[in-house]
Amino acid sequence: MGVLEWLRSRSPQAAKCIMVAGGAVILFGFMFYTDEVHMSQTPFRLGSYVPDDDAESNMVSPRQDQSRRKALLEEYCQKNSSSDMSPRRMGNFFVSDRYKVLYCKVARTGSTTTSALLYNLEFGTNFTQQEYLEHQGGTPILKRLTSYTKDEQMLRLKTYKKLLVVRNPLERLVSAYLFFFGGKDYFVGKTRHVLYNQHYQDMLETIDWKVHFDFIAHTETLAKDLNIFFQNAGVTGRENVFPHVKTRLGKRNMLDLYRQIPIKDIQRIGRKYAPDFDMFGYSLEDSFLQLLST
């Protein structure tokens, strides 16, 4: 009798949880390939809040939602020390001088959607996401904060509205796995992407803790969040370039890929990405419970 069958006979609920904690084993080879030695040794902890595509976001007002998201981040940052912003992190900020916006790009959080939107707003274009990707390397391009002088950088950091988009760490990891190994021909063979998959970063490594973000969007509610943020930034009459609310595949992909992974490995993810769970209010346990209900 297998472990799952034995658990099902003893405790159906426990067996159900382990089934959710599955996925392709190669996913974890990808995750631990680069920085196994850097894995956090802190006890596994669960977060307190998981955004849901519909239910959770409809329970509170946008203002309350943002207050909660920013409070979680600021509370975490106050409890942990940080170094000065490095040039690498400064380079993660994309600039819209037209609307006075800084977008901190975090890979696999809907960054293509957000970057394409920012580009269209900045230059008055109507590119689809695919057209935006194909246009990279052309002119004009979105400027990074590093392209400005130090004084210009500091001025923008102090006066521009700063946008951050984050994602459930479990779902983000699956997205990265599918992106690099899921057969998307457009990216296969691109040297920068081959190198990047050897240096998969958690969200904590991507952002700078000392920058106060004016708005924290979640991939799970990205269409709604981007509309709210850019409306507050003064964007009008460009509804045609904003993303639309649509059925997301992230949760389903997450369930499918984790189906064969032992629970102890899921706990390793919790330890490894504990800062991401804590900073942005996600919960490993609640993520599983939400997947069970879909």
Describe the fold and architecture.
The chain has 294 residues and is of the alpha/beta class. 51% of the residues lie in helices and 7% in strands. The protein is built from 17 helices and five strands. The protein has a five-stranded mixed sheet. A hairpin with a 4-residue loop joins strand 1 and strand 2 (101-104). Helix 1 runs antiparallel to helix 2. The longest helix is centred in the N-terminal third of the chain and has 18 residues, at 62-79. The two termini are 29 Å apart.
**Cα gyration radius (Å):** 20 Å
Question: How many DSSP-defined strands?
Answer: 5
Q: What is the SS-derived class?
A: alpha/beta
Q: How large is the count of helical segments?
A: 17
CA-CA gap between termini: 29 Å
Arithmetic mean pLDDT: 75
Strand content: 5-15%
Helix content: 40-55%
Along the chain, the helix and strand elements come as: HHHHHHEEHHEHEHHHEHHHHH
Membrane topology: Single-pass type II membrane protein
Main location: Golgi
Subcellular location: Golgi apparatus membrane
Protein name: Carbohydrate sulfotransferase
